[in-house]
Amino acid sequence: DEVDFLLLSPASTTGWDTVLQDAQAAGTQVILFDRMLEADESMYVAAVVSDMPAEGKTAVDWLAAQGLDEYNIIHIQGHMGSDAQLGRTGALDEKVAAEGNWNYVTQQTADWDEATARTITQSVIDSGKPFNVIYAENNGMARGAVAALDAAGITHGKDGDVIVMGFDSDKWAFEAVLEGSWNYMGLCNPLQADTVDGIIKDLAAGNAPAQKIIYTPEQGFDCDTLTQADVDTYGT
Known about the structure:
Layout: E1 5-8, H1 17-26, E2 29-34, E3 46-49, H2 52-64, E4 71-77, H3 83-98, E5 102-109, H4 114-127, E6 133-136, H5 139-152, E7 163-167, H6 171-178, E8 184-186, H7 193-204, E9 213-215, E10 220-222, H8 228-234
Helix pairs in contact: 2-3, 4-5, 6-8
């Protein structure tokens, strides 16, 4: 169909070989955004992506700095095999394996779904197993988990019984952290359109991108340091 550029934000990191080969054969230039996939760099012209392993490490380092005597964690994972899930899970898995006082109460995927995350959390509450951390790999799942806590009368956030952690850049989630209902949000910066637009214009003019892979700036925010200016700057 004479497509010049194909922009991909892959749900899974694998399974793209045929698509990439067909695009290359057709003269269609592939640009990855938000998420990486497993492929030789020659198969795409540029990638404007989030550093998911760094997001996970930043979040786990923050959690470790809270100095809990014991970490009993409800870990709610995203779409299994996605770049985001692999990065955010990897750092936590390593920490749990390395530390005797870090434990998974449960580790299940909600596949980014808020209602499923609520069900997972409710099942732990019903089991009577103690927990003090919810590590949800996106904000929607964190919101579902918090709904289960609220229904059970379990306190959370700043000075609460349960630490709540989410990821992404939703403004409503920033506001939950700002008000102290949540403890932490790992920023996954979606503000990549201008960068992608610049790459397309360069390629259309016959110029190669200045960088093959561009990682967008990200950081973690917690309820003790987040400001309204941060919400206004980064919230979407």
